[in-house]
């Protein structure tokens, strides 16, 4: 079982995008493709689709996939129903991994997927990830260690990417311990890039 707890269940995906996602979305290349892992009801898919990004959402819940049917019907999104924890990474075919200009993950942790998630970031692309961290067991759920990042764990998972931002701490409203990272995959011969903070 995984941590699929979303901050506020929203059957229509109309909840605001995470402040972390909003803050760092400027690093996604213009019209770049976006993958939302464990997309839930699509609040981040809608955020990026409204900014003219082709979006792909994957989730194991049929209800979640159904909630973004309007985006799919409008040709703004691709939706994939897949159990990310029991089957293969749905964006791999043999040794080939489909890559995206941005990979977004919020409030979800399944450690065996971390290498596949990082591998799905295209050259010039960005990983924007935030989820619960150790200490959250003192304020609510999730509380199982399986679903809580240990200190520095998300940073270490980004090996091969350039970490632009990293936070590991406590937030209020609702109270929660989080860890979050923004990391880019630089082109091999790229000159130093100015990643605006």
Q: What fraction, in percent, of the residue positions are helical?
A: 10-25%
Mean pLDDT: 90
* Approximate shape: globular
Q: Tell me the major beta sheet.
A: 7 strands, mixed
Q: Which structural category fits the helices and strands?
A: alpha/beta
Query: Strand order within the widest sheet?
Result: 3-2-1-6-7-9-8
Percent of residues in β-strands: 25-35%
Q: What's the tally of helices?
A: 6
Distance between the termini: 36 Å
Extended strand count = 9
Q: Report the radius of gyration as a whole number of Å.
A: 16 Å
Order of helices and strands: HEHEHHEEEEHEHEE
Unreliable runs: 1-13
Model description:
- It contains six helices and nine strands, in the order H-E-H-E-H-H-E-E-E-E-H-E-H-E-E.
- It is of the alpha/beta class and 197 residues long.
- The protein has a seven-stranded mixed sheet with strand order 3-2-1-6-7-9-8. It has a two-stranded antiparallel ribbon with strand order 4-5.
- Strand 8 (162-171) and strand 9 form a beta hairpin.
- The longest helix is centred in the N-terminal third of the chain and has 7 residues, at 43-49.
- The termini are far apart.
- 38% of the residues are buried.
